[in-house]
Design goal:
Order of helices and strands: HHHEEEEEHEHEHEHEHHEHEHEH
Structural class: alpha/beta
Oligomer: single chain
Number of helices: 12
Shape: elongated
Length: 336
């Protein structure tokens, strides 16, 4: 709940309005596990709250540890499903890759989550619970909405979750610490850009619309060309950062022709490109690119004015790397 909603809860139960602020502090600052821990609220009022409400936090039911320190957690959801969340520690940073849906509708060719199909949106509680109930919550420095699901497909809940994460009454995080990724959905991407100050990452994977459509069916509904034209209407030269995610597939989208098309497409846009190694998934006729070609691709883009990095691959041994998340029933049953 947001602060105004918590104040309304207090009012409806005959408590002072400031009790709503106390509840917000106990939850979003102190991360209490039960209403009874809210000790500056009278026992009588705590009892009233407990008759109707609960904190709503539920810890992960499984954890897989990678040799590189990455941890993949399995969280239950309100609707009886499961969702994966990935904790990625690195030097003085610790990033949490959160999910916003169980499965995904986008059905990108290279993504294991898409092969699972769509099984439902996550509620705001389900999204925030991945942060709230994370054992390493106090270590977090960054959150990326790059787990299961398409954030723009569950936009109302994602916006509400990021509001609580960034609000002064909530987690009070800077929007610069939160990145929301998207394939680009017409109308909804524009709304996100106008209603949120969080960082933006667009899944490109090919600058050529026809080829991108073969990899990502969403291209047929909203072209990468149109997405870039929309983005040019917003200022990314100061605090807010825009990035493009680009998985390299050997012999498919890793040529200098593709690099030149990226430079042409992004001309005049203040942004960066993150190159990502492809992680093989079953029954998909794609394979990765060798390191020398990835570096040559990066160097070409950088030399032509597009700031480009090669993203480190983390958690591949526990299927926690980019494109590998899935909570299909057979996987959950195997873990049980």
């Amino acid at each position: 709940m947001t602060l105004p909603e918590l104040k309304e809860v207090a009012r409806q139960l005959g408590m002072p309005a400031f009790t709503g602020g106390q509840i917000a502090k106990w939850m979003y600052t102190q991360h209490v596990r039960s209403i009874d821990e809210m000790t500056n609220i009278s026992k009588q009022n705590r009892a009233r709250l407990e008759e109707i409400y609960e904190i709503g936090c539920t810890g992960p039911i499984d954890a897989q540890h990678s040799k590189d320190g990455t941890i993949k957690y399995l969280f239950p959801t309100e609707n009886g499903k499961f969702v994966e969340t990935v904790f990625i520690p690195e030097d003085d940073r610790a990033t949490l890759c959160v999910s916003c849906e169980v499965g995904c509708k986008m059905n990108c060719l290279f993504c294991q989550t898409g092969k699972q199909g769509f099984e439902g949106e996550l509620s705001v509680r389900d999204i925030l619970n991945q942060v709230y109930s994370l054992p390493e919550q106090e270590r977090l420095t960054n959150i990326v909405f790059m787990g299961q699901g398409e954030p723009m497909d569950n936009l109302d809940h994602v916006l509400r979750a990021t509001e609580i994460l960034t609000a002064s009454y909530g987690y009070a995080w800077s929007p610069k610490r939160i990145t929301v990724s998207s394939v680009g959905i017409k109308g909804k991407l524009k709304r996100f850009l106008e209603e949120s100050e969080c960082q933006v990452a667009i899944s490109m994977h090919s600058p050529i619309p026809e080829q991108r459509a073969e990899l990502m069916p969403a291209e047929r509904g909203y072209s990468i060309v149109d997405i870039v034209e929309l983005l040019k209407n917003y200022d990314f030269s100061h605090q807010r950062r825009l990035s493009f995610e680009y998985i390299l597939f050997g012999g498919l989208n890793d040529s200098m022709t593709h690099a030149r098309e990226i430079v042409k497409l992004l001309k005049g846009l203040d942004c960066r490109v993150n190159l990502i190694r492809f992680h093989q998934i079953p029954h998909v006729p794609l394979h990765g690119t060798d390191e020398k070609k990835i570096e040559a691709f990066r160097d070409y883009l950088t030399h032509h004015g597009v700031f480009t990095t090669i993203r480190a691959s983390r958690g591949q041994d526990i299927y926690a790397a980019c494109g590998l998340l899935s909570t299909a029933k057979k996987i959950v049953d195997e873990r049980r």
